[in-house]
Amino acid sequence: MPKKAKERKGKKVKKKHPKHLKSTLYEVKGDVVERKRRSCPKCGPGILMAEHKDRLNCGKCGYTEFKEKKGSE
Questions:
Q1: In this predicted model, what pLDDT tens digit does every residue of 57-72 receive, in sequence order?
Q2: Domain residue ranges in the chain
């Protein structure tokens, strides 16, 4: 017979994800809202791309653009 929820030992551990506040993604200039991140060229202007150390990545379609290395010519 399974144990009741109150009798189970241990708790589920929730992962702590970094919070992306809207203030970090958008900037208001007068009456215009400007996006700080680039939008995905495949998905359209509603989907913002994630900025990584060496690339930009779309979480919806998987489109990736690699950043230029500063030292390479």
A1: 999 999 999 999 876 5
A2: 22-66
